[in-house]
UniProtKB/TrEMBL annotation:
Cofactor binding note from Swiss-Prot or TrEMBL: Binds 1 Mg(2+) ion per subunit.
Metabolic or biological pathway, per its Swiss-Prot or TrEMBL entry: Metabolic intermediate biosynthesis; chorismate biosynthesis; chorismate from D-erythrose 4-phosphate and phosphoenolpyruvate: step 5/7
Record function comment: Catalyzes the specific phosphorylation of the 3-hydroxyl group of shikimic acid using ATP as a cosubstrate.
This enzyme's EC code(s): 2.7.1.71
Binding positions (ATP): G15, A16, G17, K18, T19, A20, R121
Entry binding sites for substrate: D37, R61, G83, R140
InterPro entries, sorted: P-loop_NTPase, Shikimate/glucono_kinase, Shikimate_kinase/TSH1, Shikimate_kinase_CS
Protein name, as recorded: Shikimate kinase
Encoding gene per record: aroK
GO molecular function, one term: shikimate kinase activity
Binding-site positions, Mg(2+): T19
Matches recorded under NCBIfam families: PRK13946.1
Entries under PROSITE patterns matching the protein: SHIKIMATE_KINASE
Reactions catalysed: shikimate + ATP = 3-phosphoshikimate + ADP + H(+)
Length: 169
């Protein structure tokens, strides 16, 4: 197993491919892969949608910070985060101290194509999910741009192409 010095933290919008690309990067480098959403679900024994519905977004965000802090204290790995994780200054500090952030940048149309048929994302359960995604995108891009490394996605790039770009970066 290759030794990573720091945890590589994948950030970016829903549909950017953080989990798929992060998994492929971990495989390419033979290092462990972890996903903060998955850890939250495991601990709560409920889906993300159920957590939002039953406990509210603030509860989810608090769990997200706890999980990030815990995982960033552990051995270096590839860590995929939920699309809102990097928005919190506390979370960004945790990432800055113990990891290296990689923003998977994708344009709004590509993100929409990827998320439009999925019903698992509570933030997009609105009367106009396309517009909600645009609003989130516009509000979040300035924050994602604080990431240390930016890797551009494109419709014609496969997951392995993207993983190779991340590894190179
Ligand atoms: C969220 C993105 C989701 C999940 C939750 C909130 C967000 O993760 O953490 O629904 O605020 O953008 P993905 O980015 O993996 O969809």
């Amino acid at each position: 197993m290759r030794r990573l010095k720091k945890t590589v933290v994948m950030v970016g919008m829903m549909g950017a491919g953080k989990t798929a690309v992060g998994t492929a990067v971990a495989r390419a480098l033979s290092v462990p892969f972890l996903d903060s959403d998955e850890e939250i679900v495991k601990a709560a024994q409920r889906s993300i949608a159920e957590i939002f519905e039953r406990d509210g977004e603030a509860f989810f965000r608090a769990r997200e910070t706890e999980v990030l802090a815990r995982l960033l204290r552990g051995a270096p790995c590839i860590l995929s985060t939920g699309g809102g994780a990097f928005l919190s200054e506390t979370n960004r500090k945790l990432v800055q101290e113990a990891g290296v952030s990689v923003w998977l940048r994708a344009d709004l149309d590509l993100l929409w194509q990827r998320v439009r048929h999925k019903t698992t994302r509570p933030l997009l359960r609105t009367s106009n999910p396309r517009d909600t995604l645009r609003q989130l995108y516009e509000a979040r891009v300035p924050v994602y741009s604080l990431a240390e490394i930016v890797v551009d996605s494109a419709a014609d790039l496969s997951i392995d192409d993207m993983a190779a770009k991340v590894v190179a970066a």
